[in-house]
Structure formats: structure tokens, C-alpha cells
Amino acid sequence: MKPRLLMVDDEPDVRLGFGLYLTKAGFTVLEAASLADARQVIVSNPVEGLLLDLNLPDGNGLDFIAEVREAQPGTAIIVITGKGDIPSAVEAMRRGADHFLSKPVNMGELEIFLRKSLEVGGLRRSREAQKRLAKRGEPYFGESAAVRALLELATLAAENEAPVLLQGETGVGKGVLARWIHEHSERESMPFVELSCAGLRGELIASELFGHARGAFTSAVADRQGLLDIADGGTLFLDEIGELDPGVQSQFLKVLEEKRYRRLGDVRERRSAFRLVCASNRDLAADLEHGRFRADLHFRINVFPIRIPPLRDRREDIPGLVGSILEGLGSPQVEVAPQTMALLSDYPWPGNVRELRNACERALLLSRRATLKPDHFSWLSTAPVPQPPTPASGDDMERIQAALREHGGNVEQAANALGMSRATLYRRLQKARAQ
Hints:
By secondary structure, the chain is of the alpha/beta class. The chain folds into four domains: 4-130, Rossmann fold (3-Layer(aba) Sandwich); 145-307, Rossmann fold (3-Layer(aba) Sandwich), CATH 3.40.50; 320-382, Helicase, Ruva Protein, domain 3 (Orthogonal Bundle), CATH 1.10.8; 394-434, Arc Repressor Mutant, subunit A (Orthogonal Bundle), CATH 1.10.10. Helices cover 47% and strands 14% of the residues. It has helices spanning 12-24, 35-44, 61-71, 86-94, 107-136, 145-158, 174-183, 202-210, 227-230, 246-258, 284-289, 295-301, 318-328, 338-346, 352-367, 394-406, 411-418, 422-434, and strands spanning 4-8, 28-32, 49-52, 55-56, 59-60, 76-81, 99-102, 164-167, 192-196, 211-212, 224-225, 235-239, 260-262, 269-271, 275-280, 304-307. A five-stranded parallel sheet has the order 2-1-3-6-7, with helices on both faces. A five-stranded parallel sheet has the order 9-12-15-8-16. Helix 4 links the parallel strand 6 and strand 7. The longest helix has 30 residues, at 107-136. The protein is globular. The two termini are 51 Å apart.
């Protein structure tokens, strides 16, 4: 992506000259003739670099430096003015400018200073990202053939900008893989913004995504940034995308197509150059068939699908995952008895890696961080074991149809009454139609 610059100067000829040169040098140049215009541009188009004149019609550019530095710490700021006195230069640097140049400006020098300042801004963002990464450490996924194939796809996803759809059961680690993709991409120094679409409806999720202006609805007492604002230049991760409110699906589709949006109650159009990663544990194909998810939105988010296998299909990863979990819980020295590891490897883990982690944490408490024995996982032997799906028989279809009639066609209530997930009910209906 080309670095975006904002040129703030009240002289049109100056803006034109700088714009032509810097555009040819590989930058995207936005213009503003006043501080008010500059503030409006930055709100809707966050920039990596700022070229700022000090003497402007509505104020001194020195006051704007601190605003930009506080709001966007990584922005490269170069002050350009016809009044090249030392006090102004010192004050500009004190307030956060990277360089100070006097008119007439040597364009070659300007480009050098600008590129160095952009590099410094990138380093600032990288340092913050490295601090966050150092605290978390690299996640462990496993060593099985299934995981190696999964990480090959994830690496390819990280190297590209296409939308990614992560699919898999609850607890398999979709959120962990989404963050891994972000942290191994060129956007790793930019924000990773996560939102679960489950449980949010209407204005709530629209406000979370797009933000809102003061007075947009009853509780909107002040302007608020949306997650699209925060994710600009970084990655937006929408978990449980299948739960996205139908009314918001069409709005979000337009954002994906145009990268433009408006806050609720605001007429100003904004931009966000985010990269999208989605996740779902639902059968989106069934949702498409029943009209609960827009087909055109599905086409947009399903460019690069990655399916994460459940833990029961890669049991050889369990010993390594147990070791990684114990290390993450601050107990790498705790031993696991062979009989215990055999028990953990045989258990089907319906809650996947999340359930395995919870089980290990509970066992550590029971063992007082001594050797983990089968007794410390005794509840696993009595836990209900989920049965693999079977083709729908005639009796099954009669039960399903009876449950649907009883609950007035409400699929979710019928599935709960039958003791199965909604996705399982849909699969059995589809199999029955195919037979």
C-alpha cells in the first residue's frame, strides 16, 4: 500500500507542486488549506505522514502537532514554513515534529526526510507490537500432519490480503489462529481488533462496528469511534460471523466493497483500510439455504476458507498441547503420568482445545502442582461422549418433523428439544432430502 500523506498549506500552488512530486515518488497525497480542513481529513482518512505549514488562516500549525502525535503516535510529521527561525524549529520539535524545513524546499531532501520519518513511525508501531507479542509468546498448535497443513494455509493467508473465513467447532482455536495470521502479516504492527457477533443485535452491533455520533440514539451521549476506525490499517476479526444481525449484514457488505462507511447519525463518510478475518462454528451453507445469511456477503468473506480440525481428529497433538498449556499456566515442571496421558489421548474432547486447557487448569489445582494422575481428571470418565452424526433414518425424520410442528417451525427450539445442534438438524434434513 502506498503511504498516505496530508499536505497542509494555505497556498494552492504550493500544495499542487508538492502533490505532483510526492505522487510521482510513490505516495498518496491528500490536501488541506486550513487546520479545520486537516482535522476533518484525518478523521476520515488516517495518514502515515503529515507535511505541515505553521502559518495557517485559522491558527498556528504548532498546536496541531501535539493533537496528531497524541491521536496517531506513529505519524511522521515534517514542518514546512517560510518563517524558518530557530525558536519555531525548536518548539516544533519539542511538540513532536520529526523534522523542520524552510521554504523553498529541496524536494530531494524532503523525500529523504519523509522516508526516514515514516521508517521511525513504523518502528514506533513495531515496538508496541513487539511488547504485546513478548507478553503472549508464540502459540502452539501441534505437530500432526493436519496441523502442518493448517499452518501452511495460515501462512499463505498471512502473506496475502484476501478475506479469510476460519471454520471449526467451538474451542478449536479460531481466535488464536486469526491473531496468528495477523501477527505474521505485514500488518502485524497495526491493531488487531476483535468483535464477537453473537448476542449483539441492531443498533448495538452497528454502533460497535461503525461508531456513532452524539444523539444518534437515546444513549448516545457523545461521539464514539467504531471498530472500523480502530482497525484502519490493521486486521478486523469478526468471530461468530454467522450470528451477524441480518440488518447489519447488508451495511457491512457495502463496507467490504467500498471500504467506506458512516457512523450512526453522522453524514460524514469515512474510510478504513482494514483486512478482514472471520470465524464461524455454524453451517453457513445451511444458513444460506434458509435465508439467515446473505449469499453475497458469504461470497465476499469466503475468499480463503480454512477449516480447523477438531481435537479428536488429531489426538497425536494432545501430549504437546498439554505441555504447552502447563507451561502457559506457569507449571512447565509438572509431570504427567503415562496413564494420565493415555486417558487424555483417549477422551474425545467435545470442547476441543479450550476444554483441554480448562481440564489441565483444574487438575493443577487438585494436584497442588504435583504429578498429574488419572484421579485428577476423574470427571472425564463420566462426561457424556458425543456420538458421531448418523444418516437420518425414517424414525429420525418423523421425530424431527414432529418437533418442528410442535415448535411452530422454530428450528432452534426443535433442535434443543431433540438434544442436537441446529447444524446437526439441518444436516439430517439435507441427507433425508438427498435419499
